Amino acid sequence: MEYFFLLIIGFLAGTIGSLVGLGGGVIIVPALLFLSAAHMLPAISPQVAVGTSLVVIIFNGLSSTLTYMKHKMVDYKSGLFFFIGSGPGAMLGAWVNQHVHMHHFSLYFGLFLIAVSFLLMFQSRFSPRATRTFPVVRTYVTNEGEEVTYGYDPFIATLIAFVVGFVGGFFGIGGGSLMVPAMMLLFLFPPHVAVATSMFIVFLSSIVSSSTHVWMGNVAWTFAFALIPGVWVGAKCGAWLNRRLKGKTVVTLLRIVLILLGVRLIVQGLG
């Protein structure tokens, strides 16, 4: 029965993660900790929850990236450049994660989820208000035929990517919850390109950060294999929905889920 729950959790994580570019770990990690605390799964440490989540997110990122590729929404050059910063950050975050106590982990993760929910509240305002000049300039033609110009400063982009990678490696979420808003707010990425490229970066960063956890033995492979099929299918559904649903509705639902999960973990951390 527990594996059926994991399959459903994987599907939801894959769908939501791919839909808004978060990666899916924001669902997987707290779900594993909750099921473990409720004795519905064998007891696992937060480090194992994170390591397992990162392994699963690899398949989430790959599945959604392959789907977004078909619609030419992934900016590979920018994604690879951002990965230069996020890769080392992911490794450092995975290492720091080893020194965090369970209660502290739950508290910090809960606060982080609530912070992300408020960040998403302003996501609709992350649109260009003035023309900016970037050292690196990119263009994208929308489905409506409109050509959008965006870009980034390599130094600033590397710093931001490092922070995003650290957060993803530490919390086991892939880091997309910070990368997507940063891309849209600071570098004027079109929303669809930001989400698709974020999932590409999440895929690469998760390989790096999960390898650290695998080396440390922080992966529950039985749980991972139960989650991966659901995540793979869910990621494709999320990418499909991304092109059809109104972003405002999706973000509102996601914010509600993040707040509920965040409060649950804060209570657990303070208990």
TrEMBL record:
Alphabetized InterPro entries for the sequence: TM_pro_TauE-like, TSUP/Inactive_protease-like
Listed transmembrane segments: 6-36, 48-68, 80-98, 105-122, 155-173, 185-208, 214-235, 247-267
The keyword Nucleotide-binding appears for this protein: no
Membrane topology type: Multi-pass membrane protein
Protein location: Cell membrane; Membrane
Pfam families with a match to the protein in the record: TauE (PF01925)
Keywords, sorted A to Z: Cell membrane, Membrane, Transmembrane, Transmembrane helix
A cellular-component GO term for this protein: plasma membrane
Domain of life: Bacteria
Major localisation: membrane
Name under which the protein is recorded: Probable membrane transporter protein
Family: Belongs to the 4-toluene sulfonate uptake permease (TSUP) (TC 2.A.102) family.
Organism of origin: Anoxybacillus flavithermus AK1
